[in-house]
């Protein structure tokens, strides 16, 4: 049975911010989304179908190519962190373990996709995605959907969804070349070519990144570097006016250095990731019914090495995910759309560790069906409702619901939005079958709400929004240490172990997101956001304590001055409040502020020169206790588009 659905007043801001960090609704459909003919203005992938921004019931941030270029960052995580409600932790520099948290949710509670293909690694500790190796590469847009998005994107999309969209050709022949270099021996080269004809569009791209880095151990002296080679390709063939076929692939091969806990060490790791998508798109009923049949495949291979040992391999893991899916979007009337589909997903994991030298395997499958209806019931008021049914081969059937409303008033100058969503997450393969596994785990369950308002002032010069969100979770899975414990699960087959996964927590999270942007004349643009997040344990001995590594306060401020239409400079500030490094809140990590400066010069229609100084004041800070962060660094680059 579906748990009772509740609805409350809400808003989700879809903003066009200053050039440094754009928060806007896209103006063209994402490649993985089927569309309907009932609407044809804006696209917001929160609904997986073309929808006017004022009708979207959940908050979404879209960083377009202009915003990505303006940010000048090579790492996607640094760009995401400029969005409201987004924080992250990492165990060092590029390539090391990096976890994204949306509105205080765990990293495994966000679904990450490239061109609609899920990236979450079944062999990772809790099935989450490691953002440490995700570089800008050939990315054209990044979409961040906050809050529960389980109906369309999968039951585990509890904190939100991050969808990375790669570039596609728009002209008969086009290409690009990006070159960057700077501090810490950093170099980044990217290039791509593509073309579009009446029947065929294609693109090939590649990149190479290298840096000497800095010590992953905060007090270490040894540099921990990173190297990455990335390739991407896509092709779409228009067979008839109503039928097309496409294939897309992204490959990444990285090697990163890291340190042991609290000590310098020569350890390093290698990660290879492959993402493949094939799809067939076809229209029926004169285009009113859009259909997509697809197969998606991901393979993540991770290995760690310690050259000091006679057998240097210390860890080996491989996670594979296969997904078959159908999606349809039907324009019932000019005012009502239906989105529906079915998916079959199979995940497999293999792990081996020198600390427990036994090869461990696990697999799981889930079959899903979903339907969502969206329509305008009275002028300006759009309702959205959906249901998803997941059938897990181990944890049975679960039915989830989602409900939302968007109400555009005053000719769209005021928008009220509300949404409620549910989520369920079955235990991950590593939590079940690794050396720390527990076959008696229960699924995690979630309820999520959000509410707010967006207001335009002084014409379109100023836009402000405020959103309140709340989430309740039950049966959250955590790692339970066996140090000093007499729990029977601390011994398996007569062999003691250091810990295991256990359903230990209820959590409650609430918060407020404030977002604003202003364009003051032709030269000055401002954007800012602030997030208050109260993420707490709600059970057990740590009831009322703040969740680990979740800042209560954080914010971003950016100001861009356009000296001429072709020359601009930007100053940005990121503030992250204090966090706690343990569940009892006895170990504190101090708050920090980082200031960056950027400048760009559009020399002509083909060439752009840019440069930046990161961490201008050389702030000494930590995201995770005892792990290093970068100091001041200067970088220059060139972009060519032809």
From TrEMBL:
TonB-dependent receptor plug domain segment(s): 54-161
Short sequence motif TonB box: positions: 41-47
Keyword Coiled coil annotated: no
Domain (TonB-dependent receptor-like beta-barrel) ranges: 236-616
InterPro entries recorded: Beta-barrel_TonB, Beta-barrel_TonB_sf, Plug_dom, Plug_dom_sf, TonB-dep_rcpt-like, TonB_box_CS
GO terms for biological process, alphabetical: cobalamin transport; monoatomic ion transport
Subcellular location: Cell outer membrane
Pfam families: Plug, TonB_dep_Rec_b-barrel
Regions annotated as coiled coil: none
Major localization class: membrane
Alphabetically ordered keywords of this record: Cell outer membrane, Ion transport, Membrane, Receptor, Signal, TonB box, Transmembrane, Transmembrane beta strand, Transport
Membrane topology: Multi-pass membrane protein
Any single Gene Ontology cellular-component annotation: cell outer membrane
Signal peptide region: 1-22
PANTHER family registered for this protein in UniProt: COLICIN I RECEPTOR-RELATED, TONB-DEPENDENT OUTER MEMBRANE RECEPTOR
Family stated for the protein in its record: Belongs to the TonB-dependent receptor family.
Protein name, UniProt field: TonB-dependent receptor
Organism per entry: Caulobacter mirabilis
Source species taxonomy: Bacteria, Pseudomonadati, Pseudomonadota, Alphaproteobacteria, Caulobacterales
């Amino acid at each position: 049975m579906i748990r009772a659905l509740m609805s409350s007043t809400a808003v989700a801001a879809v903003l066009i911010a200053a050039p440094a960090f754009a928060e806007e609704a896209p103006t063209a459909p994402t490649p993985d989304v089927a569309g309907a003919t009932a609407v044809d203005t804006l696209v917001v992938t929160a609904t997986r179908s073309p929808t006017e921004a004022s009708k979207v019931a959940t908050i979404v941030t879209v960083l377009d190519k202009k915003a990505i270029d303006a940010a000048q960052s090579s790492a996607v995580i640094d760009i995401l962190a400029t969005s409201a409600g987004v924080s992250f932790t990492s165990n060092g520099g590029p390539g090391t373990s990096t976890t994204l948290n949306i509105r205080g949710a765990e990293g495994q509670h966000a679904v990450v996709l490239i061109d609609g293909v899920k990236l979450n690694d079944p062999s990772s500790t809790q099935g989450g995605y490691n953002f440490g190796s995700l570089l800008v590469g050939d990315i054209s847009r990044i979409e961040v959907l906050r809050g529960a998005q389980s109906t369309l994107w999968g039951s585990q999309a509890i904190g939100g969804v991050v969808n990375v969209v790669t570039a596609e050709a728009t002209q008969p022949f086009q290409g690009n070349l990006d070159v960057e270099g700077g501090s810490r021996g950093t170099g980044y080269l990217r290039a791509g070519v593509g073309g579009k004809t009446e029947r065929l569009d294609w693109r090939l791209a590649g990149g190479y990144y290298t840096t000497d880095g800095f010590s992953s151990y905060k007090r270490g002296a040894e540099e921990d570097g990173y190297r990455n080679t990335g390739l991407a390709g896509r092709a779409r063939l228009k067979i008839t006016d109503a039928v097309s076929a496409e294939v897309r692939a992204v490959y990444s091969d990285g090697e990163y250095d890291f340190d042991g806990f609290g000590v310098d060490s020569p350890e390093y790791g290698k990660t290879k990731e492959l993402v493949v998508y094939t799809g067939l798109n076809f229209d029926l009923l004169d285009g009113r019914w859009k259909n997509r049949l697809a197969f998606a495949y991901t393979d993540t291979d991770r290995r760690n090495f310690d050259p000091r040992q006679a057998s240097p391999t210390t860890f080996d893991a491989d996670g594979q995910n296969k997904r078959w899916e159908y999606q349809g979007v039907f324009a019932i009337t000019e005012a009502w759309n239906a989105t529906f589909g079915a998916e079959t997903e199979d995940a497999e994991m293999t792990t081996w560790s020198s600390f427990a030298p036994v090869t461990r395997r696990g697999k799981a499958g889930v079959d899903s069906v979903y339907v969502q209806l969206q329509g305008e019931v009275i002028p300006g008021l759009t309702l959205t409702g959906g249901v998803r049914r997941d059938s897990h081969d181990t944890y049975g059937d679960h039915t989830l619901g989602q409900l939302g409303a968007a109400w555009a008033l005053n000719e769209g100058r005021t928008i009220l939005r509300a949404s409620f969503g549910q989520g369920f997450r079955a235990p991950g393969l590593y939590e079940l079958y690794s050396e720390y596994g527990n076959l008696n785990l229960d699924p995690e369950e979630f309820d999520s709400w959000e509410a707010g308002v967006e207001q335009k002032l002084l014409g379109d010069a100023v836009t402000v929004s405020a959103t309140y969100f709340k989430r309740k979770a039950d049966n959250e899975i955590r790692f339970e240490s066996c140090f000093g414990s007499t729990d029977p699960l601390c011994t398996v087959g007569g062999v003691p172990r250091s810990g295991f996964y256990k359903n230990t927590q209820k959590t409650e999270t609430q918060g407020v997101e404030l977002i604003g942007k202003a364009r003051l004349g032709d030269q000055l643009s401002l954007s800012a956001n602030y997030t208050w997040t109260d993420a707490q344990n709600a059970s057990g001995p740590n009831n009322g304590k703040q969740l680990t590594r979740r800042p209560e306060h954080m914010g971003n401020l950016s100001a861009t001055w356009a000296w001429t239409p072709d020359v601009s400079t930007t100053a940005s500030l990121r503030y992250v409040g204090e966090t706690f490094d343990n569940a009892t809140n006895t170990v504190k990590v101090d708050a920090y502020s980082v200031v960056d400066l950027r400048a760009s010069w559009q020399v002509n229609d083909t060439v752009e020169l840019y440069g930046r100084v990161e961490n201008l004041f050389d702030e000494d800070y930590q995201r995770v206790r005892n792990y290093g962060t970068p100091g001041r660094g200067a970088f220059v680059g060139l972009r060519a588009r032809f």
